[in-house]
Amino acid sequence: MNITFIPLSEFRPRMEALRQEKGMDFLRDIIGMDWGEEGIGAIYMLENSTTKENIAVATRTTDRENTIIPTVSDIWQIANMYEREVFDFFGVVFSGHPFMRRLYLRNDWVGYPLRKDYDESEALNPVRMFSEKNEEDYLHTLSPDGTITTTLDNSFDDKEYVINIGPQHPATHGVLRFRLSLEGEFIRKVDVHCGYIHRGIEKISEKYTYPQILALTDRLDYLSAHQNRHALCMCIEKAMGLEITDRTQYIRTIMDELQRIDSHLLFVSCAAMDLGALTAFIYGFRDREKLLDIFEEVTGGRLIQNYNTIGGVQADITSGFAGKVKEYCKYILGKLQEYNDVFTNNTITRKRMIDVGVLSKEDAISYGCTGGTGRASGWSCDVRKRHPYALYDKVDFKEVLYSKGDCYDRLRLRIDEIKESVKIINQLIDNIPEGDYKVKTKPIIRIPEGSYHAAVEGSRGEFGVFIESRGEKSPYRIKFRPMGLPLVASMHTLLKGCKIADLMAIGATLDYVIPDIDR
Amino acid sequence: MEMKKPVIKSIPYEEFKDNETLESLITELNKERTNVVVGALDDLINWGRSNSLWSLTFATSCCGIEFMSVGAARYDFARFGFEVTRNSPRQADLIMVAGTITHKMAPVLKRLYDQMAEPKYVVAVGGCAISGGPFKSSYHVLNGVDKIIPVDVYIPGCPPRPEAILYGMMQLQRKVKVEKFFGGVNRQQKSGDATEDYPIIITNVPQDITDKEREQ
Which residue in B59, B69, B139 is closest to A125 by CB distance? Predict the structure, then answer.
């Protein structure tokens, strides 16, 4: 991967030019980096959403105490969240950012964990058993000239009626926390708090060897375990120059699609459960169990399969695999009508979802909401089409697109995508070529020096892996692009003016998985 | 009155592991003899309690999805009386800690535990809740929930299979069955147990209900 370094003084005008002149409207990711003596900074991965042209630019500064970089949060809306993440992990202050504060860790956390000189001792950061104070008490704003002013309240003022939802709440799909400002029943403002399941995967990866890191990717977004691991394996194989066999490609593609069906089934079930339709939840899980049986037979695991490995897959497919998958595909197509009857075409569902939580295409791109959410808004953002990998350029499938971008579109899109996944599987399942399922690799895997990137279409968006290697057996820096963070960031726009009951419908159809956001 | 062995209908006693812990609990109970009436009532109440264990929905990560599977059609934990999950800690009997507990989550979990009414139980589901699991070496992960709250049953696995979760829940049922209810678990909590290091301070109290005006 080529990274263009921009000096700090030219950074802001160059970024504006990239947005205006080159049409780089999709900010894929901001990767914070500590290059050691060369400085601390960030890598910006940009893409033109129409021409699919890619570029990676970076900027850095050697000042470790007062690390200040101009913000781009007014150019791309998602940069707001990404910059907070970089601030959290590296202590880079983005001047001009509207509300610079930590994203994942507690406000009273000492140090910036992903810096190379971070002190990990327990004494500095013991388990604090008292409640965290809200940010108002700590608010620092940084003006463009570099002076920090501390003011009291910014996110909510005294007159607002603020309620707290989460982190333990059934509608948040895990441990996400919202602070909502209400006016009667209507939501005026929302502040999302992440980090309740921040496990520091990127930091521990720097200590682990490459095969060890593989185990952690499955636990990021456990509903796209295959795709996550596929992305990391692909990135490492690309870096090593390892050619994998056709048989592996077939198996990986089929498994990715099966996992997508699994995830979408769970999506429909949980969306139904959140809206109170418990029958649809039972139906969805009934069909999901049948799929998990297939996973279990081949990989040995139900939810977390640990199947992909560097150079191939862990074990060959079983003899009855093809037959069972074909049978399942036939079965699930028949059941989709049942979901539509029970849930999708239900009057209550329609009333609660149609025209609720509309995300425009421009906002979807600016927020970087990939996956089903982006496609429901009419943005063709499927990595399988944009940057084909594995066998996706050889199979025939349609990228499902809707135009309105409301909750109902997001729901129907998932059901349609199940059909497309079945179509892909049917094209591949009878033609799995003979051959090795795994290429032999050296016992200790080292990656040549450089930066590498790979992306796959996860169950709920683009999942990217960035590896910076210094030729060691563990990475110098590894970054996973979270699929859910852009979705959660867009909540602010989606919820404004909605009723508080719509939060359930919107949260359910955005389909985020919290451990993937927090990593 | 003699205590009997904790019986679960569907599995013979010999097929359970960790019977020694329960047997030691029984001998301890038998040391102080119980009144026949109270003992019979204990048995009756424990039978009822063990067959209606309501859990708090507390799932932080992967194990939560397996917990949902246990609740769905194939594994169906309603057969054992666990079908009701509560979203409020006030109404829950047990807390299923399904998933990693991080530094930021630890005070929240402690508070949820403190808010539950006695008798209350904790089930640690999965490697992360037991010891930190695959994330043990992380700077932000609590290495085992038993560091902050007492755990009754550990269910290993990453994530545990639904059968394992059911087995663990049945172990909890057996534990409930051998407990002394009256004068025992129903009055366990002492004042001062649940004090927080940090008191909850309510600020911005509107003018009309300040102490001064209340006195007048």
Answer: B139
